[in-house]
Amino acid sequence: MVAKAQNYIIDDYNDDEHWRDVQRQVGIIGNSEKVRELLEIIEQVAPTDISVLISGESGTGKELVAKAVHMRSRRRDEPLITVNCAAIPEGILESELFGHEKGSFTGAAGQRKGYFELANKGSIFLDEIGELPLSIQVKLLRVLEEREFMRVGGTSLQAVDVRFIAATNRDLEEEVKKENFRQDLYYRLNAVHIHVPALRERREDIVELAQKFAADFSRANLIEFKGFSERAFFLLQDYSWPGNIRELRNLVEKMIVLEKGNFIDETVLQKYIKPSDEFDKKLPMRLEKPKDELEREFLLRVLLEIKSEISQLRELMLAIAPKRYSLGEWRDELPNEYAADGAWSESDRSPESVSDMEKEMIRATLKKTGGNKRKTAKILGLSERTLYRKINKYGLRDHEE
Ligand SMILES: Nc1ncnc2c1ncn2[C@@H]1O[C@H](COP(=O)(O)OP(=O)(O)OP(=O)(O)O)[C@@H](O)[C@H]1O
Ligand SMILES: [Mg+2]
User: Fold this and answer.
1) Domain check: are 55 and 173 in the same one?
2) Measured from the CA of 245, which atom of ligand 1 is nearest?
3) Are residues 187 and 219 in the same domain?
């Protein structure tokens, strides 16, 4: 009996060791049941050639999961080619994916290999697959079904041995209903579906993630970081994380830089996370409370939501035209001492050109949405593809989002 119990302990220990090794290899941090389930499904499907569709909100780690599937497969020593379907201009998407023959269109000086050829024997990761135009979807279906494709301007079929991994933060089933996405392609891609849960659904992972990001970042930048207080951890766990793990990583890095590695307690953290944001609208209300208390709580939630939206709008307006409406317009009419040197410096000036304003607007909106490009595009009334183009054009990098 005793021996048996000991065996169990040893088995559990080995099991945990195994998963820790996998986690170390693929870089997926977290101790929650949800992360364990994620790792288990990755381990199950990775060794097969089955197509995998990964869904989840922005910043949850879809790309990390895609890499993990490749790394834990027998194709790990072959290439993993990542294609961001939203970022490539529609006009060149087909030739980027399938390659082209010399002279097949103006500017096609030589023959060029497409992503599928480059991914041969390895895996292709089609990120933001929901953004793929219908004309390309039909061509992709053919590769999935026949494992062959034709270069743009080509006359012969090319065979390809590739494992498909796709990701989306859209509800593809919904897109199928709206006829934006082909149903047959959806079924083919969705042979296995891996859903990556939002960070607010696995709050147990927040402390470990924050500590890991802090340790990695301070080591890489030679900053001596003094650590977080317990209350700071509580606050981090309370926050709703609309930008998920990317937002947490960016916040930790920003705080370490701006606080110069000093201890981060509740007061410091509150400078970076606004109290209204901490209020998690998605948390269920506790129903055992008396009715009038529930009503009060409900009203409070609605008010906080409105307050947070108004403050977001105000910040956005200020980001677009910081000083113009408060000082600039009337600058010439100001008494001399206000208009003198120093009172109106170059850096105070609002953005001069339309593109400066556009850049500021995109930067501010990305910040508000925690780097969520889909939400940002929606708020700004742009297509995701246009947003990507503008992010590239203005050099807005990931860590600034
Ligand atoms: N479980 C995790 N452990 C450690 N780091 C993680 C984890 N999940 C995500 N990250 C990190 O968070 C950041 C965002 O992850 P990733 O790019 O994979 O998200 P995504 O779901 O593809 O987002 P998007 O939809 O915006 O493309 C990356 O820096 C990634 O390394
Ligand atoms: Mg991604």
Assistant:
1) yes
2) 12
3) no
- CA distance linking residue 152 with residue 328, whole number of Å: 54
Residue 193, pLDDT > 60, answer yes
Indicate whether residue 385 lines ligand 1 (CB < 6 A): no
Which of these three, 197, 226, 242, is where a domain ends? 197
Residues 171 and 235 in one domain: no
Pocket test for ligand 1, best of 85, 169, 245 (most atoms within 8 A of CB): 245
| pLDDT value for 360 | 87
**pTM metric for this prediction:** 0.72
- Report CA(192)–ligand 2 centroid distance (Å): 18
Report in angstroms the alpha-carbon separations of 1 from 4, 7, 11, 220. Answer: 5, 10, 15, 50
Q: Are residues 54 and 192 in the same domain?
A: yes
The domain total for the chain is 3
Domain span holding position 104: 46-197
The answer, yes or no, to whether any atom of ligand 1 lies below 6 A from the CB of 87, is no
pLDDT digits 0-9 by tens, 73-120: 999 999 999 999 999 988 899 999 999 988 777 776 788 899 999 999
The yes-or-no verdict on residue 24 having pLDDT over 80 is yes
Please tell me whether residues 52 and 186 are part of one structural domain. yes
**Do residues 104 and 54 both lie within one domain?**
yes
Residue ending a domain, choose from 172, 197, 222: 197
Question: Does ligand 1 have an atom closer than 6 angstroms to the CB of 370?
Answer: no
For ligand 1, whether the C-beta of 67 sits within 6 Å is no
Question: Ligand 2 center to residue 94 CA distance, Å?
Answer: 21
Report which protein residue has its CA nearest ligand 1's atom 10.
61
Please give the mean pLDDT across all residues of the chain. Answer: 83
Query: Is 70 exceeded by the pLDDT of residue 155?
Result: yes
Compute, in angstroms, the gap from residue 345 CA to the centroid of ligand 2.
40
Domain match, 140 and 215 both: no
Listing DSSP states for 31-66 in one string gives -SHHHHHHHHHHHHHTTS---EEEE-STTSSHHHHH
pLDDT tier at 334, thresholds 50, 70, 90: very low
DSSP 196: P
What's the CATH code of the domain at 273?
A: 1.10.8.60
The answer to whether residue 3 scores a pLDDT higher than 70 is no
Q: Pick from 264, 300, 262: which is nearest to 283 by CA?
A: 300
Indicate if 119 and 50 belong to the same structural domain. Answer: yes
Q: How far is CA 253 from CA 30, 202, 256, 289, 373, in A?
A: 19, 21, 5, 40, 20
Integer Cα distance of 34 and 206 in angstroms? 13
pLDDT for residue 131:
93
